[in-house]
Every structure is written in C-alpha cells, then in structure tokens.
C-alpha cells in the first residue's frame, strides 16, 4: 500500500514537472501540442523586421579557425557600396525567378555554361542569374594579400574575380580590382594541363594556344571571361591555400552588384570543396542570419567546436545537374500535423538545396495544401494584396506580436526541421508580410529548398560522406 502511494506520488510529481517545463517553453515564444511538437511561434513584429544597424552574431563557429563571416549584401553589415536606390524586393524576386527557371531547365539539359576556350570569345549561351546570390564572404587573394568580397554559391563550381587589365569591360566593384601582375604567387594554367580540361568535359586543353582561358555566362547577359590561373587564397591568418585554381576575369558584365566575383561551393572537381579536399575533407557548413542586420558564417572542415546536435539526411545526385546538392523531402507539417499530400508528389520529382535561391519552390499540390492550412491558422489577421511570387500576405502594421503557425520539413531518414519564424515569412515591411514559398509549374518540376528557409540553421555539407545536416540556433 505504501509502495503504491509513493508510486502515485512520483508520477504526479513527474507530471507537474513536465507542466512547469512546458510553461517555461511557452514563455520563450513556443507553443507545444500534446505530442511535444512545436505548434506555433509567438513573436514580436519588430523581430521580423531588419534593423538599420549591424549586429554581429555570436555563432557556433566563433572559435573555428577556418571560418569566414557571412553578410547579406543589402544589409548594414555589408561594406559594399550600395546602390543609390533603396532595396527593390520586386527586382530580387524577379531575379530569383530567373535563377529558378535556369536551374530547373538544367535538370533536363546537360549542357554547361562553363568551358575552357581556345579564344576569348563568349559563346551565345544563356544561363543562371546570380544577382540573387545575396550572401557574401571576404577572402584574401595573392601575395601580398588583397581582400576581396565574393558572393558564395552552392550551385556554382568556379571561383572567379575581376582582374586587371579589363581588356573588355569590368563592372563597378567596391574592392580594388585584383591586379595579378602585382602578386608574386600568381600563375596562369597551361592549356595542356589536366586542370584546364576539367573546366568542362569535351573542351580539352589541346585546342588552346598557351594559357587556359575560361568563359562563364549567366542569365540576362551576365558573364565573366578571362584566364584560368592559380593563386594563394587566404581564408584566415592561419589558413592559406596555395595554388588555388580560379578564374581571373578581364571581361565581365552583369548582375553581380558591387561584389568582386563569386566563390563556388558545388560538388565539382574545380570547386573550392574539391580543391581543399585533402585539408578539409570535403566538409563545410554555413549559417545564414535571421535578417540582413545580423551576420552568419561559412566554415571549412570539421573541428572540435563543430555542433554535435546535427540531424543528417542523405545527399543525392540530381540527374544531369550533378553540381547541385540533391535532397529528399518526404513531407511537411503545419502546427505539428502532417499536411495531406500524396506520397507520390515528392517521390516523383527531384529536390535540391541551394544557397542562391531565395524562396523555396514546392510542387503545386504541396504548396496548395501548405497555403490552405496557413491561411486557416492566420485567419484572424488582416490580409494584404498579393505581390510578385506571393499570394498569401498579411498586414502586421497594427500588431505588436503575432502568432505564427509552425512549419516543419521532413527529410529522408527521419530528419524533421522546424523552421525559424524568419524562415516562414518574407518581409517587405510590417504592412506586407508574405508566406515565403512559391509553387512550381508542375508536381514533376525540380523542388528547390531556398535560403530563406535555411535561416539560423547551421547547414552542414558532408560531401565525402554524402549527407547533409541541420543544427538549430547556428547564428542569430
């Protein structure tokens, strides 16, 4: 009898402790369902809006030696010379749509827009728009080192920067244009080398005359043409990569803002991931900040300070688009409940994760289910007119706090990712806050998991191990 009493007492005490714990979590802005799943986020409207001042994040990578600070090119943390015109969200979304169309067309077209050249003429070929590559890092190039601000992109292979002399044309950039003649470690790559032939299969160095030349052409006539070369790349004072292969562009035009060029992080033999495989083991991670006012990080390699709470899902190969990182999305939950989406919707098509695409593109069947459920959950809020890609928008200008339904993405091997509130809505201003997803044209189109949904997560690419990881609270 006495034993039964103590058993009941212990159970009651455990139940009470759990209730107290749940209340504590709710005070932090989360609501939980009966199964412990997050069902909603209570957030201040001001937290969804960017600040005019820069607030460097305290990230999980603060003490890692091979880490670069990530900044948003339109935010107050950026040192780039900003355009005189204010941030144009419509333009960003139009550029995002152009990038998506190119990526999706490439999954059905094996042609590549990067090649080695026998002559320095541009091929009449269109391709990707990288104007939406909004995240930047600063690296050092050459001896002595010159600092350069580059867009980083998981969907691109070649790292390149503008170089003097600009024999064709160069766009305006914030940093001084790199001058290879002033670097003691610069060297052109021979056309007869294996490195030159790796630029693109079928375009070997034997056709070249002396030095290897490259051309990469993007959508809307953005392009870079120049010499394929090697140089000393500095990531940090203690992390220097000798003989790094990159493009030294002497004829550049297009949508690169005022960044000096691009750093390619794709799974390709000329990307920085492959070139540094012996040092970093084809392992890198990044965290994109919650808004343009904060900073994130890009880290190469794994060390003792890397997050231990990483949930991994397999990386897959996208047919005819092997430079992209393929993933398997198996479902979506809203408020902790699975959406009614036929299993064939995600299994019939491919999916990738991309740092340069802003808005996640879903099969129309999945997007319709998501939109309907979110609209139902947000029924008490004032709606705003549709804009550009977005058909579900709200006016929060008269609200101080809002309750946002949780959205959870389920990936292969049981990985469930609860999106940060800033990854659920795209905010133009308080009067125009829109559901940050868009529908593809057909369920069979390539699904793209964009950078808005990746905010605040440490996203880990174990390319050698063929897996992708997510760790929450990687940065502010």
TrEMBL record:
InterPro entries, sorted: Aspartic_peptidase_A1, CND41-like, PEPTIDASE_A1, Peptidase_aspartic_dom_sf, TAXi_C, TAXi_N
Xref: PROSITE patterns: PEPTIDASE_A1
GO MF term (any one): aspartic-type endopeptidase activity
Example GO biological process: proteolysis
Keyword Iron: no
Catalytic residues, chain numbering: 153, 354
Ranges in a coiled coil: none
Protein biosynthesis keyword on record: no
Residue ranges crossing the lipid bilayer per the database entry: none
UniProt entry keywords in alphabetical sequence: Aspartyl protease, Disulfide bond, Hydrolase, Protease, Signal
Family: Belongs to the peptidase A1 family.
Record's protein name: Peptidase A1 domain-containing protein
Source organism: Eucalyptus globulus
């Amino acid at each position: 009898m006495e034993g039964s009493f103590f058993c009941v007492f212990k159970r009651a005490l455990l139940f009470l402790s759990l209730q107290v714990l749940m209340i504590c979590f709710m005070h932090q802005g989360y609501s939980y369902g009966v199964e412990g799943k997050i069902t909603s986020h209570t957030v201040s409207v001001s937290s969804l809006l960017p600040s005019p001042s820069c607030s460097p994040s305290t990230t999980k990578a603060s003490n890692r030696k091979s880490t670069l600070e990530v900044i948003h090119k339109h935010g107050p943390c950026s040192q780039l010379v900003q355009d005189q015109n204010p941030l144009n969200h419509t333009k960003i979304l139009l550029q995002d749509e152009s990038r998506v169309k190119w990526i999706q067309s490439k999954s059905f077209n094996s042609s590549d827009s990067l090649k080695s050249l026998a002559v320095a003429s541009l091929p009449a070929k269109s391709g990707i728009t990288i104007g939406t590559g909004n995240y930047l890092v600063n690296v050092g190039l050459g001896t002595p080192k010159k600092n350069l601000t580059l867009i980083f992109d998981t969907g691109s292979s070649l790292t390149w920067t503008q170089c003097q002399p600009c024999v064709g044309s160069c766009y305006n950039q914030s940093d001084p244009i790199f001058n290879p003649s002033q670097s003691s470690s610069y060297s052109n790559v021979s056309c007869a080398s294996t490195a030159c032939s790796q630029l693109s299969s079928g375009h070997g160095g034997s056709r070249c005359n002396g030095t290897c030349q490259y051309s990469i052409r993007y959508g809307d006539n953005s392009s870079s043409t120049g010499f394929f070369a090697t140089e000393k790349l500095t990531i940090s004072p203690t992390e220097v990569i000798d003989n790094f292969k990159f493009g030294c562009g002497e004829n550049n035009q297009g949508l690169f803002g005022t960044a000096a060029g691009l750093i390619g992080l794709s799974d390709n033999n000329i990307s920085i991931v492959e070139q540094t495989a012996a040092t970093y083991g084809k392992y890198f991670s990044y965290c994109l900040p919650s808004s343009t006012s904060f900073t994130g990080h890009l880290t190469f390699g794994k060390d003792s300070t890397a997050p231990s709470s990483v949930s991994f899902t397999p990386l897959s190969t996208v047919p005819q688009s092997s430079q992209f990182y393929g993933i398997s999305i198996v479902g979506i939950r809203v408020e902790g409940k699975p959406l009614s989406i036929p299993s064939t919707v995600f299994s019939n098509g491919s999916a990738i994760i991309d740092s340069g695409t802003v808005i996640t593109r879903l099969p129309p069947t999945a997007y319709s289910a998501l939109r309907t459920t979110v609209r139902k959950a947000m029924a008490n809020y004032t709606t705003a007119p549709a804009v550009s890609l977005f058909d579900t928008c709200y006016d929060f200008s008269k609200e101080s706090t809002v309750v946002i339904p949780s959205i959870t993405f389920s990936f292969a091997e049981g990985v469930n990712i609860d999106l940060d509130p800033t990854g659920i809505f795209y905010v133009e201003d308080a009067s125009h806050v829109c559901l940050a997803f868009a529908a593809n044209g057909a369920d069979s189109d390539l699904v793209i998991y964009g950078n808005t949904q990746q905010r605040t997560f440490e996203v880990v690419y174990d390319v050698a191990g063929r897996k992708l990881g997510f760790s929450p609270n990687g940065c502010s």
